[in-house]
Amino acid sequence: MKDFTCYNPTRIEFGKGKEQNIGQYIAEYGVKKVLIVYGSERIKKSGLFEIVTKSLSDKGIAYEQLGGVVSNPVMSKVYEGIELAKATKVDAVLAVGGGSVLDSSKAISVGALYEGDVWDFFVGKTSVTKALKIFDIITLAATGSEMNAYGVVTNEKTKEKLSLGGVVTFPTVSVINPKLQATVTRDYLAYSAADIFAHSLDMYFSATYLPEFIAAHTENILNTVIRTTEILLENPDDYNARGEFAWAATQALNQSTFTGIEGNRYDTHFLEHTLSAEYNIPHGAGLSIIVPAWMKYQKKYLPERFKRFADKVFGLENADAGIEALINWYKKIGTPVTLKEGNIPEEDIPALVDKLMAIAKLWLGSEYYTKEMITSVLEKSK
Amino acid sequence: MKDFTCYNPTRIEFGKGKEQNIGQYIAEYGVKKVLIVYGSERIKKSGLFEIVTKSLSDKGIAYEQLGGVVSNPVMSKVYEGIELAKATKVDAVLAVGGGSVLDSSKAISVGALYEGDVWDFFVGKTSVTKALKIFDIITLAATGSEMNAYGVVTNEKTKEKLSLGGVVTFPTVSVINPKLQATVTRDYLAYSAADIFAHSLDMYFSATYLPEFIAAHTENILNTVIRTTEILLENPDDYNARGEFAWAATQALNQSTFTGIEGNRYDTHFLEHTLSAEYNIPHGAGLSIIVPAWMKYQKKYLPERFKRFADKVFGLENADAGIEALINWYKKIGTPVTLKEGNIPEEDIPALVDKLMAIAKLWLGSEYYTKEMITSVLEKSK
After folding, report:
1. How far away is chain A from the Cα of B8, in angstroms, using its nearest Cα?
2. Phi-psi region for residue B132, left (φ > 0), alpha (ψ -120 to 50) or beta?
3. How many Å apart are CA B274 and CA B283, to the nearest integer?
4. Quick one: pLDDT at residue A366?
5. I need a surface site. Which of A20, B74, B213, B351 has the fewest CB within 10 A?
6. How close does chain B come to A370, measured CA to CA in Å?
């Protein structure tokens, strides 16, 4: 077991109708005025927005609102939110939506207490020490953002998709009501499953030391995602399956899979962020294209781990069969597995390699993310 | 998935030598003076006490000390600690020892800010809302107290062993250095394993709804305990096994096994606390006596769960074989499985039943803990 610090102060309120208590949860922390951040106007049609604002009003909490956050959220919206938060002097941000809305909210909460350009935090010019309190009602299970400190946003000018975060950007309270997640489309359910898989596999297939206890914990997340995704594709209203899917998504990126490990990296996220920033494909779709290609590249470094994966997740006997089984599973649930299926021109590979090498320094550096490595994975994703 | 709240603000500092940083960890929270609580004087001979006090002094933190906490910790020591904490105006408690030391420290931290008798919190006369900050260096992996809010103490006058806790009694920082846990005796390693097992099995075999994801998580804890205990009995200095054992112990009672479940109880802890309060046997030893007897009683209510346990933990096909395998495993690691082996006179059973019925109201009430239930389990533990 390697040394680690484990600290996760987010309070999870999980269950049916818990969004009706959001005013109470927020009031417990002395907040008087929040900025509600959301995506499309659908939450107004569905009645969720009204439930939220009624709950806030009942507790005497004032609110401002900022809609229009998109998938692969962009900095222009974050800047708009920061201006609004500063102008209206809110003392917290309430994200109502999926990971994009919450990630944007984290950036807004940091930027609202910073005089400079919030992009400074994404590029490592300065580190996060202050933020408005963050609350959320998470309506899509995928990113794990509801129980971690990080937010990923795309700078649409530079086409860089990067993250910020610090101990102050853990959400204070996250509401997870699986019922609210039941309206996700079939496509996005598959992309979400692919995202959770990638959060788990980035660690699982890169950690040079992985305790058996943590390996089994991660395999439990993977098996839960496979089992519940298949149930939900048949019956989107299966509440228990929806709940387990949501909770597995949270666990995949709330540090529980990272304790005591060594040498883990975020290779597929490094590679994918540029795909979704450049082509605006869903993050999960980009990941299901990159993950199998990366596994084929990575296999030589941890052959026993790949063999174990094949056994524990798909009941198969060798590493290659495990990778094939994952590709077939992606196909079965309907998420792309090649650049072509993602409508990304294969002839763009050299330009993508250059782009990735340029931002490698913000991840692990070009010593690890070499031209050979990047090219090899992208070539395997054809 | 049933509704739940999950909130655990304890910061874990896990790893080699982390006790040397205790002064820094405590200083980060603005603490100026702590009460160091410990058990035997062994920590002075081993050098641990000096490491701790040097680290505190280096950060300008003053300290008082209270030694002599025993296994199955008692209220007289808690009262002594409360008086000392009040008289010396410490603003935090630092537990250096096992679960007994930490549990006593939690009671001291609550009592230090209370004018009445701290026993009021144990018997439910009032609830915990204030406590001094609690820090710990946990030298025995078993109780999980390092990442939960609860403390169990015996009132030696009434022979009641009860618990107190609230959101303010989560430790602020817990240091887990597996190396410090390597000196535990062979006996206590077995008792610790039995304690972790009971924390897991109380839930696993009583929850009327148990999500597959949480069932598998709990089985992972059980399998980790079996695997690492066997390694450690052979080689007490296996650091990775010691580390996984410690982390599994923490997970078994940090809420992670309780999320989304329904109807769980603490039957074996209810039954055992009176054994260790009356006969002062190690808590883990009492549990390995009670658990198999309770399983035999409980089996009829959740036959499929018992079958699953046999399969997932021991690779066996039926419920009875699973129970027998657990009994054999307890025997193998050397922890008692009958009242006789625990030196508890079988003729005391009627008196024990009366005692248990008298305190049942502080647990789930006599509607559930009937004379028939209590008698039946104790008879099976002969």
Report:
1. 6
2. beta
3. 10
4. 77
5. B351
6. 33
CB A8 within 8 A of CB A255: yes
The CATH number of the domain covering residues in A11-180: 3.40.50.1970
Q: Which of B167, B254, B143, B173 is nearest to A254 (CA)?
A: B254
Percentage above 90 pLDDT, chain A: 95
Cα distances (angstroms) measured from residue A157 to each of A104, A281, B16, B58, B76: 16, 17, 46, 49, 68
Reported as a single tens digit per residue, the pLDDT across A229-256 is 999 999 999 999 999 999 999 999 999 9
- A178 in B contact zone (CB under 8 Å): yes
Between chains, do B15 and A6 touch, taking CB under 8 Å as contact?
no
CA dist., res. A278 & res. A352, Å (int): 9
Nearest to B16 among A3, A220, A259 (CB): A3
Rounded CA-CA distance A350/B302 in Å is 60
- Tell me, yes or no, if the pTM score tops 0.80: yes
Residue B348, pLDDT > 80, answer: yes
CA–CA min distance A228, chain B (Å):
10
Beta carbons of B221 and B252 less than 8 angstroms apart = yes
CA–CA separation, B72 vs B51, rounded Å? 26
Q: pLDDT tens digit string along B157-187?
A: 998 889 999 999 999 999 999 999 998 999 9
Checking if the pLDDT of B368 tops 90, the result is no
> Which amino acid is residue B341, in one-letter code?
E
Q: Quick one: which of A149, A152, A148 has its CA closest to A163?
A: A152
The tokens describing B237, both together, are 């200095």
d(CA B374, CA B223): 29
Q: Phi then psi for A339, rounded to 5 degrees?
A: -55, -40
Put simply, the answer to whether B224 touches A216 (Cβ < 8 Å) is: yes
CA distance B97 to A206: 36
The model's confidence at residue A305, banded by pLDDT at 50, 70 and 90, is very high
Which whole number is the average pLDDT over A160-186?
96
Does the fold of domain B184-380 match that of domain B11-180?
Answer: no
DSSP characters over A351-379: HHHHHHHHHGGGTT-TTTS-HHHHHHHHH
ipTM of the complex: 0.96
pLDDT digits (tens, 9 = 90+) for A310-319: 999 999 999 9
Amino acid at A345: P
Domain ranges of chain A: 11-180, 184-380
Q: A263 CB near a chain B CB, below 8 Å? A: no
B260 to A243: CB separation less than 8 angstroms, yes or no: yes
Q: What is the DSSP string of A192-235?
A: HHHHHHHHHHHHHTT-SB--HHHHHHHHHHHHHHHHHHHHHHH-
Partner-chain residue, chosen from B1, B221, B227, that has the shortest CB–CB distance to A240: B1
Query: Is the pLDDT reported for residue A367 higher than 90?
Result: no
Measured from the Cβ of residue A310, the count of other Cβ atoms closer than 10 Å reads 21
Answer yes or no: do A14 and B260 touch at CB < 8 A: yes
Are the CB atoms for A203 and A257 separated by under 8 Å?
yes
**What is the separation, in whole angstroms, between the first and last Cα of chain A?**
38
CATH number, domain B184-380, options 1.20.1090.10, 1.10.10.10, 3.30.1510.10, 1.20.210.10: 1.20.1090.10
- Which strands make up the sheet holding B62-66, listed edge to edge? A4-6, B11-14, B173-176, B133-138, B92-97, B33-38, B62-66
CA distance A119 to B142: 46
